[in-house]
Amino acid sequence: MSDDLQKEAIIEEIDPVERAVRRFAPLLIVKGVIGLIAGIVLLFWPRAGLAIASITLGLFLSADGIERLITVLRNPGARGPSDVLSIIGAVLRIVFGAVVLFRPVEVGGFWVSFIFIIAGINLTAGSLFMFWSEPRIRDDLLSLMSAVLMLVLGLLMIVLPMVTALLIFRILGSIMVLAAVPSLAVGLRSR
After folding, report:
1. What share of the chain is helix, strand, coil (3-state, %, to 5)?
2. Angle at CA 110, nearest 5°, toward 171 and 94?
3. What is the span of the domain harbouring residue 150?
4. What are phi and psi of 179, to 5 degrees?
5. Does residue 11 form part of some domain?
6. For each of the chain's 191 residues, which pLDDT tens digit applies?
7. In-domain check, residue 159
8. DSSP type of residue 24
9. Rounded to two decimals, what is the model's pTM?
10. Domain annotation covers residue 78
């Protein structure tokens, strides 16, 4: 019996889960390598991760704007007066996408800062509301620590949004590396 036929016979005897893992081993390896590379980039070079996310956003916005503009121009009058608003929205998407593509770190940094400031305000307000509206929280140490942590994180996001974003990118990179290694190991073991 040839080696390939022998391997097929052995795989048939293996339980269905192991057979599925063997079938998807190349995908697990690719997923593991991509996750490992992306995780390392986010962990050690979070600004590069921000630039990559910004470029992806710029490409998406530009493509979305072009698609919307073509759709509106191919079907004039289908929606009536809203065509003008659709054209303006599509052009703004294209322009903003192009700006993000040419200045990814600056524009991405601005939007990340803006989002983190809004999230910080939300966390701070939520923490203060939770702290003052629920007197029993002050008696529960775990809830009190959670409210204080939310307050500190919210204030940090407001005062230092980019530092917080880069820290979160590093944490995300660590998580990606930790998730990618088992996938890569299982894929390599199951080849």
Report:
1. 90, 0, 10
2. 110
3. 16-189
4. -80, -30
5. no
6. 566 666 655 555 666 767 777 777 788 888 888 888 888 988 898 888 878 877 887 888 888 889 888 888 877 665 666 778 888 888 988 988 888 888 877 777 777 777 778 878 887 887 777 777 777 766 666 767 777 777 787 788 788 888 887 888 888 889 889 988 888 888 888 77
7. yes
8. T
9. 0.58
10. yes
What tokens were used for 56? 């992806």
The token pair at 139 is: 């008696």
Distances (CA, A) of 166 to 108, 130, 149, 179, 187: 12, 28, 19, 20, 31
Does some domain include residue 130?
yes
Q: How far apart are CA 128 and CA 132, in angstroms?
A: 6
How many CB atoms are closer than 10 A to CB 95?
Answer: 13
Domain total in the chain: 1
Q: What DSSP element (H or E) covers 159?
A: helix 141-159
